[in-house]
Amino acid sequence: MAQENLSVVLHAKGDLRLEKCPVPEPGPTEVLLQMHSVGICGSDVHYWQHGRIGDFVLTKPMVLGHEASGRVVKVGSAVKHLKVGDRVAIEPGVPREMDEFFKSGRYNLSPTIFFCATPPDDGNLCRYYKHSANFCYKLPDNVTFEEGALIEPLSVGIHACRRAGVTLGSTVLICGAGPIGLVSLIVAKAMGASQVVVTDLSPERLKMAKELGADFQLTVKRGEEPQQLAKSVAELLGAQPHITIECTGAESSIQTAIYATRSGGVVVLVGLGSEMATVPLVNAAVREVDIRGVFRYCNTWPMAIAMLSSGKVNVKPLVTHRFPLEQAVQAFETTRQGVGIKVMLKCDRNDQNP
Predict the structure, then answer these.
(1) Angle at CA of residue 158, ends 109 and 295, nearest 5°
(2) At what angle do helices 203-211 and 179-190 cross, to 10 degrees?
(3) For 193-218, b where at least 16 C-beta lie within 10 A, e where not — what string?
C-alpha cells in the first residue's frame, strides 16, 4: 500500500489545501479504507467560505468530506462483519457514548457524536481514512461506489420523509431543488407519494426535478409573496398538500411552507438558514399544522442500500461533475458557483470509475 495519504485540509476560512498526511492505523473496532468516491456537500463549501456553521467553528485544520465510499484495506482485530476488499458506504456520524439518545435509537441527537468534517472532527476527503466498522455498510455488487457515496444525502431525504410521515397517496410540496430537495423528491416518490410539487428559483434545477419524477415544477420569482406561492401550489395539486419539506432555509420559503400545507398537515424543516426567522406561527397553530425539525439522519443506511440495490430509487443522474482528488480546489469552486447538482471527487488514482 502506498504510504501517501493526500488529504483536502481546511486551515482557516478561505484557506483550502491539498496535503500529505500519515496513513492512520485502525483500532480494534475500526477499519482502514482506501477512499474511492467523496461528494462535496454545501456544508463543506460553507466551512471553506465562512469557517463555521452555527455553533460549529473551525479552530484548527480539518479534513473535509462526509459523503463517502471506499474499499476496506485493513481490519481491526475485533471486526467480524467486514474483510479486506469489501466495498462499503460510510455513515459519517458515530456516537461516542451509550447515552439516552443512542438507547432510544435517535443517536443523531447525541451531543457528543463524532461527525466527519464537523469541527473538530476530521472528514474523509483523502486517500486513506479509518472509521468505526459498525458504521461502514457493505455495498451489494450492483451498487456503485458513487451510489454508495450518495447514500449520505439520500439519507437526509429518507429521514425527512420519515419525519414527515410520507406514505401511499401523500401529496407533497418540496421547497428547493438542490441536492437535498431532489433526494427528498426521489424518496417521497419511492415511499408512495402520489403527487409532488417542487419549487425553485432555477429553471435548470426544476428540469432535473422533472426528470427525477416531480409531477409539477413551480418557478419562484424573487420577491414573490409567500401566500401567493402557496395559492399556486394548491392550484397545481387541486388541493393543499398534506406535507411540505422545506429544503432552502430561506425565511420566505419557510413562510410559504406553512401557508401552503393543508390543515392538520406536516411541515418538515430541512434547510438551515439564519437562527431567527419570522414565520406565521399562529397560522400553523390554529390549523394544527405540525412543524418538525430534521438533524441529519439515523438508521437510514440499510434502507438506502435496499432502495438502491432493488432499483426503487435512481440517484445516478445527481452526479453532474467528477474530479480527481488532485483537483479538489477546482471541484470546490465548481460547487460554490452552483454549477450542476453533485460534484464527486475520485480519491483512488487507479480507479476513477463511478
Answers:
(1) 25
(2) 20
(3) bebbbbbbbeeebbebbeebbbbbbb
> Could you give the CA distance from residue 238 to residue 214 in angstroms, rounded to a whole number?
16
CA angle 78, 79, 82 (to 5 degrees): 165
Amino acid, res. 85: G
Q: How far is residue 30's CA from residue 52's CA, in Å, rounded to a whole number?
A: 29
Q: How far apart are CA 304 and CA 271, in angstroms?
A: 21
Q: Could you give the domains of the chain?
A: 5-150+315-346 (3.90.180.10), 159-293 (3.40.50.720)
Residues 64 and 92: beta-carbon distance below 8 Å: no
Q: What are phi and psi of 29, to 5 degrees?
A: -105, 15
pLDDT class of 233 with cuts at 50, 70, 90: very high
Count Cα neighbours of 242 within 13 Å in the Cβ-side half-sphere: 14
Dump pLDDT digits (tens) for 195-222.
999 999 999 999 999 999 999 999 999 9
CA neighbor of 40 nearest in space, from 345, 354, 350: 345
Alpha-carbon distance of 239 to 92, in angstroms, equals: 39
Cell of 179: 441536492
Contact 199, 220 (CB under 8 A): yes
CA–CA separation, 207 and 216 (whole Å) = 10
pLDDT for position 1: 47
Sheet holding 195-200, edge to edge: 216-219, 195-200, 171-175, 243-246, 266-269, 290-293
Of 206, 209, 248, 210, the residue nearest 226 (C-alpha): 248
- Residue 166 phi/psi, 5-degree rounding, is -60, 130
Q: Which residues of 295-321 are buried (b: 16+ CB within 10 A; e: fewer)?
A: ebbbebbebbbebbeeeebebeebbeb
Q: Where are the alpha helices (DSSP H) in the chain?
A: 42-50, 100-103, 145-149, 151-164, 179-190, 203-211, 226-237, 251-260, 281-286, 301-310, 328-336
